[in-house]
Every structure is written in C-alpha cells, then in structure tokens.
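Subgroup meeting minutes
Present: P.N., E.W., G.H.
Scribe: E.W.

1. P.N. recapped why we're keeping a running log of single-chain structure predictions: easier to compare across weeks, and new members can see raw inputs and outputs side by side.
2. G.H. added today's entry (83 aa).
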Amino acid sequence: MLGGGREKKEDKIDHGVGLEFHKRIGDPVKKHEPLATIHYNSDAKLPEAKSLISGSYHIGEHLPREKRPLVRHIWVRSGLGCS
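Output recorded in log:
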C-alpha cells in the first residue's frame, strides 16, 4: 500500500518504506502523542494509508481485557506446506 513492496517479482523492495510504532497495545497515551510514524515514497498513497492505520486504533479509558493474537490465520495453498 505504501509503495515499498513488490507488485511483480521483478520489482525492487524499498526498505525505506514502512511503519514505526511508538506505542504498544495497553501503553498509556497522552494527547497529541504520536502512535506511529509512516515512512512512505508515494504521496498519492499516503491518505489511504493514514485512514487505514488511524482506523486500526481504539483509544479508551481502560486497558484491553485481552490481547488479540498477532497471527489469526495461516493460509496454505494446496500442494504447499508450512514449516
């Protein structure tokens, strides 16, 4: 989405693109404190990335009751194994 990955196998990976998280789930946050920094190479894709990232946060008065799993699904294509 940010332009750092590959759309085709021949495309190069831009290692300067990605997310830098400053807060973890359950960390206290102060008003106007940054939660993450977006490193990007495409101004056109930035608004969509900001919207998706900001929509992924929920800031409330209480700590979450439980942490959600980092990996929810592992998809295995027929004939390929996971190790």
